[in-house]
Amino acid sequence: MKTLDPPARFEDSTWALMKEGYLFMPRRHAGLEAPIFRTRLMLRDVVCLAGPEASELFYSGDTVTRRGAMPKTSLRLLQDKHSVQQLDGPAHRRRKAMFMRLLVQDPTRIADLVSRFREAWLRHLSAPEQGDEVVLETFCETVLAETALSWAGLPANADAVGRDAPVLGAMVRNAGRFGPGTAVALARRANMERRLRGQIRAVRSGARKPPEKSPVVALCRYRDEEDKPLPASVVAVELLNILRPIVAIGRYIVFAALMLHQKPAWRARFADGSREGLDRFAEEVRRVAPFFPFIGGILTREAECYGYRLKKGQWVLIDLYGTCHDERWFAEPSMFRPERDLSWQKDVHRFIPQGGGNAASAHRCPGEQATVALIGEAARLMTHEMSFDVPEQNLDVPLDRVPTGPESGFVLKNIRRP
């Protein structure tokens, strides 16, 4: 078995990562026989991996833990301590089972989520203050925040949405960045957590009675492996881990709009309101769209990947974006081809836009079914329930910015309803 040489004494690739963004790992993996190399990031020894074998390492069993694998600012904005992503073993599997019930196993919950999204989209689109021009990125942030709050069983009136939508959007927008914006996002998140703790106390005391099947009720009633309820602070964290990812789907929706604009045949295909092919379209959007580029972990035991021995305690990163854009696993990866018929339910170690493995037992995101459903519904709304012009604008997608999207946010103009 081979070993990877340690990085040179003064080698550190942090600046290169910040400069290259999504392309940092793909560029280096492209010249290697196997997609694996070792370097330093933030002065820390790291092994960078891509591909199905790397996904199996990350998402099979308990070989990799997420604890200690992310910068503290990213951890606080995206997951936070004591969340399900930071658990391992039986504690992780038990809490993950609750999220699977909420997001995967009961189709009526996803149908309800999509229904709330559709109603919010059409209502906001028709609001007098909306005018005839929309920046889709901002529009989606508002619509998805209202959808998420309402579906979760939390207040979703205009004041609540106006207050919370920018907070949730800022968590996503600043998760891969450092600077004043990140500090502001962290402070606003802390304030939102305090508000959520108040809602949780009201639900537990009976002062608020949200729908029985709402996530806030499930989290308030959840009991851990020791039959203890979660502290209100942890329930607040887990509520944010439902709300924030739903708002983040707006980034995929913007890329879906970009694909419909660049590939008019797909726009025409969905114009009659048919849902045939929507899932395949949404999955290919997830493959091509730059979402979050990689995920980190720490090895809990010695392991092997691509014939190389990796030591216990090694920090490892798996390249999600690079895996989905590598010709070793996808023919003509730069081409947008929904006929690939990809699905989050199969091919779980090759198609990994939001992680790999089995969602029920591994750390794979349990929200992919909801993500695909909402992208698909947004595509249907943009092709069947409305028409619009796409004015001249800057649609460049800078890959040195994480997370990224079209520079203009994708502007729609002269919006008409049938």
How would you portray this structure in words?
Helix content is 48%, strand content 10%. With 418 residues, it is of the alpha+beta class. It has a single domain, classed as Cytochrome p450 (Orthogonal Bundle), CATH 1.10.630.10. The strands form three sheets. A five-stranded mixed sheet has the order 1-2-8-5-3. A three-stranded antiparallel sheet has the order 4-10-9. Strands 6-7 form a two-stranded antiparallel ribbon. β1 (36-41) and β2 (44-49) form a beta hairpin. The radius of gyration is 21 Å and the shape is globular.
Low-confidence spans: pLDDT under 50, at least 5 residues?
none
Q: Main β-sheet, in a few words?
A: 5 strands, mixed
Please compute the radius of gyration using only Cα atoms: 21 Å
Report mean pLDDT, rounded to a whole number. Answer: 92
- CATH superfamily, by name, is Cytochrome P450
Sheet with most strands: strand arrangement: 1-2-8-5-3
The secondary structure category is alpha+beta
Number of structurally distinct domains: 1
Instruction: Please give the alpha-carbon distance between the first and last residues.
Output: 64 Å
Globally, the shape reads globular
Name the CATH class: Mainly Alpha
CATH architecture: Orthogonal Bundle
The protein's oligomeric status is: single chain
Q: What's the count of strands?
A: 10
